[in-house]
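Backbone-to-sequence.
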């Protein structure tokens, strides 16, 4: 039915919209509308807000082991963001000798690859819930983000955009799955 089609296409529509929103954030950063400080502060605020939502929808009511594993994942993610701060000067200079049209076409191809290989089922793997983020889709989005970030004016801009990338392409799909799992019983009236 039409309702089932709309419900089934929600994850795809959300992901395409998130890719377009990420490109919009890059556009704001490269044109100077969004300063490096604003980019980093907004990214960190989004990380904190997403973490609180994930704690509420993804971990609440689970056993002690799942909660401990969730805390370990968050610690690993924070360690990754700190390492990202350290490598942002390298990322800044990564594509200096590459032309803008090459970067743009590679980025477009990689984001299309990300959209094509993203797992839209919304069903986490029972052994490892993070396995629902397809590695091909994740690597394509990460490399596209690196290409875009290398065009930004400062290393703080690079760190800010890459932290947005982690939020957008790693944490957001996991949060979407947790919220869908929590809310799916309440949405049965749609089907």
């Amino acid at each position: 039915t039409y309702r089932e089609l709309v419900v089934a296409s929600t994850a795809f529509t959300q992901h395409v919209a998130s890719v377009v929103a990420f490109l919009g954030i890059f556009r704001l950063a490269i044109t100077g509308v969004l300063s490096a400080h604003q980019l980093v502060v907004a990214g960190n605020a989004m990380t904190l807000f997403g973490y609180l939502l994930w704690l509420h929808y993804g971990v609440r009511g689970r056993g002690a082991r799942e909660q401990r594993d969730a805390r370990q994942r968050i610690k690993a993610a924070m360690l990754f963001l700190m390492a990202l701060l350290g490598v942002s000067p390298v990322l800044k200079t990564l594509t200096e000798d590459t032309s803008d049209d090459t970067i743009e076409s590679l980025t477009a191809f990689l984001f299309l690859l990300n959209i094509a290989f993203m797992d839209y089922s919304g069903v986490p793997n029972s052994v490892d819930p993070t396995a629902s983020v397809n590695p091909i889709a994740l690597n394509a989005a990460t490399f596209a983000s690196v290409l875009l970030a290398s065009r930004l004016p400062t290393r703080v801009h690079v760190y800010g955009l890459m932290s947005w990338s982690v939020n957008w392409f790693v944490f957001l799909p996991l949060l979407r799955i947790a919220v869908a799992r929590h809310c799916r019983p309440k949405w049965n009236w749609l089907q």
